[in-house]
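Record format v2
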Amino acid sequence: MSKKLGWKVPLILAVIAAAVFYLYPPAEKINLGLDLRGGSHILMQVETKTAVKYEMDLAISRIGQALKERGVTFGSVGSPDVGVLDVQGTDPARRGDVRKVLDDFFGQWEIRDAGSGAWRVTMPLEVRAAIEERAVEMTLTTIRNRIDELGVREPTVQKEGMEGDRILIQLPGVEDPERAKEVMQDPAVLEWKTVTYPPGTADFGGWMPPASKDEVLRLFGGSLPADTELYPQRLPAREGGGIVTVWWPLNKVSTVVGNDLRSSRRGQNQWGDSVVNFELTQDAGRRFEAATRENVGRRMAIVLGGVETKQVISAPVIRSTIRDSGMIEGGFSLETAEDLALKLRSGAIPTDVTIIEERTVGPSLGRDSIRAGLIASLVGFVSVMLFMLAYYRLSGVNAVVALLLNVVLVMGALGYFHATLTLPGIAGLILTVGMAVDSNVLVFERIREELRLGKTVRSAVNLGFSRAFGTIVDTHVTTVVSAFFLFMYGTGPVKGFAVTLVVGLVFSMFTAVFVSRVIFELVLGEGKPVESLSI
Amino acid sequence: MLQLFKNPNVDFMGWRRRWISVSMVLVACSIVVLSVRGLRYGIEFTGGTEVQVKYVERPRLQDVRGALTAAGLTNHVVTTIGRPEENEVYIRIALVSQEEEEDLTPRIVSALRPEDVRSKLAAGLANLNIADAPTLDRLLETNPDIARDDAAALAQAIVEARRERAIFRSPADLGGVPGMTPAVSEWMSSRTFAGPFAVRSQSYVGPVIGKELIRKAFLAILGSLAGILVYIWIRFEFQWGLAGVLALVHDTLIVLGLFSIFRLEMSLPVIAAFLTLIGYSINDTVVVFDRIRENLRVRGPGDLAATINESINQTLSRTVITSLLTWFVVLALFFLGGEALRPFSFVLVTGIVIGTYSSIYVASPILVEWQRWFPGRKERGSGGAPASQGGARKVRTSRSS
C-alpha cells in the first residue's frame, strides 16, 4: 500500500465501523414510524383564545365585586373584545377610588380614563402571551398524564406549529384510537360537591356509601332528593383485592369547579404522609369558606371528569373551615398524591381542545407496507447493481461497493440520530441509491472519455475524478436545496423523507468520490504503468 | 467495452424549435387539462375523513355506497384499493362545509355494519376483527379455566395473529393462534364472531390543516425553484438559471397534467415526490451546463449552438444511464412498493422521462434562443475588453477566450 493511501483506508474502515456500531442492533436503533409499525397520530388545537376569554370573565366578576366593596356604583363591566375590559357609568366624582381599584387588580395592564365615568382596561400582549402559553403547557401536561394512564408505550406528546398552540400526540400500537381520543379530550373538570347524607346518618365523617345504586336508593327511601345525583367512586376492595365501585349521593350544584383552582401540588402533612395541597382563586375561596364552615366533620367529594364520565376521586372529611388553600388527606402514597395533584391541576385547564388531524394505521397495513417497501427497494437496488456490473465490468464492482457502503452509512446515520423510518423514508433511501449512482456514472463516463482521448490509465482516472468533481457538487447542491424546502414545509413522514435524502446525498459524496477513488488507487497500485482498465 | 452510444453526434440544437414547439403544446395541454379536469386532492388538503377497510368477502361497491347514503353520509368517494383479491375498499368523505368539523370514522364503521352484526354485538358477542387486546383479555378472564396471566398473553396472541393475517374469516381461525387450546377455541367460538370487515387505517383532517398544507406545498415548490435559480445564477449566469428553472416548470406542469388525466390523488408524499423530481431533474441540466461551460472555455463563445450540441453529445451516455438507473428504482417502487407509494412513484416514473428530455430539448435551446434575442450583452461580455466585463460571472465563461 502506498504512503499516499496511508490514512485513507483506516479512515474508511473507521467510518464503516462507526456506522455499524450505531446501527447495531437495528431493531433498537431505528424507530419505525407509525405508518409502518401501526398506531395513532393525533394533532390537537389548544384554543388559547378561550383561555384568554376565561381570564377576562374572571376579571369582570372580580372587578365588579371590588367596586361594590368600595361602595362605588357603576353601570356595567364588560369585555367588548378579547383583552379589552370596559367599566361604564361610574361616578365621575370617585375617579380616585376607581383608579385605585383598577390599579390594584390590573397592575400591569394599561388603564385609560375615557371620561365621564367610563374606563377602559387593556390586557398587554405579554400578559396575553403568558396566559396562552400557560394554557398550552397545562394541556400538554394533562394529556401526557392521561396517556400514561392509558398505558401506551413510548408515546410522543409535544408542542407543534408556528404558534406553539398545537399538541402532537403519537401513540404507537394503538389500533382503536376512539378510546384514547375520548380520554384525551375529556375536559377533566374538577368539582367539589357536598354530600347529601341519607336521612338518619349519625357519623357524618365515617359514613361511606354502599357499592350499589339500589342500595343508595334504599337508604333514601326509594328516590333521591331533587338536588342530588349519584357519582361512582372506584376503590380497592377491603378483602381479596380487586376494585369495588361505591355510589356517592352528591349535590348537583358544585361548590367549586376546576377553573377556580389556582394550583395544586403534592405535599406532606405533619406526620409525613403524602397529601395534596391546593390553592383556590379569591372568588372561589369565599364560596369554599362558606361551604366548608357548614360542613365541618362531614365529607366533601372531589369529582373529576367530563360530562359522561364523572367520578369521585376522593371524599375527604372536612376538618376545619377552608378559605383559599387547603390540604387533601386520604392515605395517599407518594404516587397517588402526585397523580391527584396532577389531575387537580389538569382540572384547571382553562380552555378547550379540538382534534384537527388524526391518522391511524393498523399494524397489519404497516406490516404490508414494510414488506412491499423492502421488496421494491431490493429489486431496484439489485437491478442497479447488475447494470453497473454489466456495463462497467470491474469498475462496476467498485461502484457496487460504494453503493452498498452508502446504504450502510445512511442506515448508521439514521441509527445515530435515532431517526424514525417512515414509508416515504424507505422511498427516500432507495431513491438515494438511484442518485448516488449518478456520481459513479459521471466519473466513469469521464474516465472513459479521457481514455478515448489517449490518456494513460492513471491520468485518465485522476482527470475523471477531478473534472467530474465540480459537476457532482453542483448536482448535490441543487438536490439538497429542494430537500431543504421539503424539510422546512413538510410535516411528519415527509420530513423523514427529506432527512433520508439529504443524509444519503452527503454520504454519496463520500462514497462515490472518496471511497471509489481509493479503491481505484488500491487496484492500480503505484509505480508500474497500468496497461488497461476494466471500465 | 459496453457502450450505449458510440461517439454520438446528434444535431440536437438544429431541431430545437420543433421540440420547443412540442413542449409548448404539451404544457398548454396540461394547463387546459388542469383547468378543466382539475386535481383530485386527498383529505390532507380538503379536510375530511378517510377509512381503509378490508372485507372477508369481495364487497360490492354499490352496497357500500348505499349503506353510507342510508346513514346520511352522502358526500362519499368509494373505490377499491390494491389488487381485487385483497377485498379492500377505500372510503373518503371530504368536508362539505367549514362548520362540519367532525371525525366521521365511527359513523362510517357503524353504517357499514350489517344488521346481523348489530344484533350479535347487542347480544354481547365480541367482534374478532375490531376488538382490541384489553377487550379480548376481559372476555378471556371470564373463562374460569384460564389463569389471569394466560388470558392477557392469549389476548395479545390473538391481536398479533390478526396483524399477521389482517382479518379473521371466522372464529375457527383462532385455532391457529399460538397458545390456543381446542377447549378455549371452542369456548371462544360461542362468544365471538368474525365481523365482515376490519379497519386497516383511518384518518381525519380538519379544515384548518388543509389550508395550511396547500400554502406550505406552494411555498415549498416556489422556494426550491427560487433556490435552484439563485444557485445556478451564482454558479453560471442568470439566463442559465432561468433556462434550468423553466425546464423544471415544464416538467412539473406536464406531470401535473398526467396526474389530472389519471385521476391520481394529491397527497403529502406526492408533493414530496414533486420536490424530489425538481431536485433530480435539474441534475441532468446542471451536468450539461457544466460541460457547456467547460467547452466554452476551450472553444470560446463563437458558435454557442455547436458548443451546446457537442456538450450534450459528450454527456449523453451519462444522462441516459443515470436516468435509466433511477428509473429502474422508481419503477420497482411503482410496481412493488405497495398502494401507499404508487402516486408518489408515478410522479417520479413519468417525471424522470420528461426531465431527461427537457434537460436536452428545453433548457439548452433556451440558452441558444436567449443569445439570439439578447446578443448585445453576450458579445460585450465575451469581447474581452476589461471595461465591459460587468462582473465575475461574465469573466468565468470567457476566461479562456
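Chain A has three domains: 8-36+362-524, 39-185, 186-357.
The first helix of chain A runs from residue 8 to 23.
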